[in-house]
Amino acid sequence: MRHWLVILWALWLPWNSMAADAEHPHETADEHSQEEGIGQVIVHHLLDDYQWHFFSYGDLHATLYLPIIVYHQGHGLKVFSSRHLYHSPDHTYQGIQLHHDRLAAADGAMLLDFSISKVVVGLLLTALLLLWVFRKVARAYEKRLVPAGLQSFMEPIVLFVRDDIAVPSMGTDNARRFTPLLLTFFFFIWFANLLGLLPWGLNLTGNIAVTGALALLALIVINVNGTKDYWVHIFWTPGVPWWLKVPLPVMPLVEFLGIFTKPFALMIRLFANITAGHVLILSTVSLIFIMAKLHPLVGYGTSLFSIGLGLFLFGLELLVAILQAYIFTILVAVFIGMALETHHHEEAH
Amino acid sequence: MELLLPKFGLFFWTLVIFLVLLFLLKKLAWRPILNALAAREERIAAALQKADEARREYERLQKEREAIMAEARAERDALLKEARMLKDRLLEEAQQKAVEKQKQILDEARRQIENERLNALTALKKEVGSLAVEMAEKILREELKEREAKIAHIQRLIEQN
């Protein structure tokens, strides 16, 4: 049963985007633009959207139009359905223009976009799923301390985050404070990664705004909890010759930059890994349609190869989903641990 | 290029969703789960300690029981030994008494026999004495008779002569 689900996912995921592509016949005019079109389809899939397109069958388009919420400077708040944007010939409605994946004011004024876009809906779904799952697990502990069912699936992971991520990074006492945050990071990223793999065209953690927000939170938590030693270490790095600090503050500058490069790396790492996975799977399946241009039979032949490789890549992505969640979480834990550290032997540095 | 440019709205919503989720999960899930796990760990540790204590207590009782058993066994052995000794002594005493009694009886018998013998001997002696006296008397009498006869004979002879 589960294996069939995996195969269904693998098959359905690219079909969504292909169907979306079919809505723009001008992009498939000749072979050259077909290949370009596929590139666009892949990028389109990776980007956020203001509608949620599930599938198209002939003239039937199963699409969920999402609410647009914008603050248009000089015009105030505007709320309307994205249907108006997509159905307008120049993708403009109430002076708001849709260009690629983002909105702009047609009159060039400043625009703050608070729309509930596809990725926002996906994040909300992730949050609701997490709340549902872990409320259920928490309730289960009221009834029995010996785990069963969902509880016994989640418990080792929760314990892993507590005992193998939090405690070794910052010690038992600090771990008690930060384990809830680390658990939220871990499960939010993991579930978002998995939802991104579902065949409904979501790409949550492969979006740089999402990973950027998570990294910003990590940056704040790390530096808010920085001890005196942590700041001393940054601005007057011990164990380094004085002429690296005065008159030209080389080391302090490097260390200060480190405050930002660590979360920046978190942001890029998660984004790049998930994006790469999506691109790989989409490319593999797109190959069928490129080859089918030569001859339909070649397309069928390629599909065998593509489905096999796609399945393999999908399995890999399932692994990457939890691996990236783990890497993000353990790095945040380690950085917090470093910020909390108090040095008793500074000369040793 | 749009891929690498974060959208402000999405950034904003991610922050909001994550922070609300963190708050709710912390309250509704992480605290109860982590507390339950900690409570269970404590319970397991306590149960293990209790089991250890119970085991040690059992071992102590076992040792005590063994000691009591050994003591009882020793006491029993001592009692048995004493009883055996008593029995032996009683038997011996009885035997000794029997032997003594026998000896007494034998002695009594022997004394009686001796008495009887002495009595008999005395009686015999008396008898023999009287017999001897009687015989001596008779002999004397006879002799005397003979002497008187001799004297008378002599005298007759003298007289005749």
Spell out the key features of this protein.
heterodimer, A: 349 residues, mainly alpha, 2 domains, three-stranded antiparallel beta sheet, 9 helices, 8 strands, 66% helix, globular, B: 161 residues, 1 helix, rod-shaped
- Tell me the number of strands of chain A: 8
As residue ranges, the low-confidence spans of chain A are 12-32
List the helices and strands of chain B in order. Answer: H
The ordered string of helix (H) and strand (E) elements of chain A is HHEEEEHEEEEHHHHHH
Taken as a percent bin, the fraction of beta residues of chain A is 5-15%
Query: How many H/I helices of chain A?
Result: 9
Query: Any low-confidence stretches of chain B, pLDDT <50, length ≥5?
Result: none
Care to count the β-strands of chain B?
Answer: 0
Structure class of chain B: mainly alpha
Radius of gyration of chain B: 66 Å
Strand order of the largest sheet of chain A: 4-3-8
Helix content of chain B: over 70%
How far from one another are the termini of chain A?
56 Å
Structural class of chain A: mainly alpha
Write down the overall geometry of chain B.
Answer: rod-shaped
**Strand proportion of chain B:** under 5%
Radius of gyration from the alpha-carbon trace of chain A, in angstroms? 24 Å
In the residues of chain A, how many domains can be counted?
2
Mean pLDDT of chain B: 90
Largest sheet of chain B: none
Describe, in plain words, how this protein is organized in 3D.
The complex is a heterodimer of chains A (349) and B (161). Chain A has 349 residues and is mainly α. Chain A has nine helices and eight strands. Chain A has helices at 2-22, 31-46, 83-87, 118-143, 150-197, 208-224, 228-235, 250-292, 296-340, and strands at residues 51-57, 60-65, 67-72, 76-81, 92-93, 96-99, 102-105, 111-113. Chain A has a three-stranded antiparallel sheet. Chain A has a three-stranded antiparallel sheet with strand order 5-6-7. The model of chain A is unreliable at 12-32 (pLDDT under 50). Chain B has one helix at 8-160. Chain B starts with 7 loop residues before the first helix and ends with a helix. The model of chain B has no long low-confidence stretch (mean pLDDT 90). Classes of the chains: A mainly alpha (349), B mainly alpha (161).
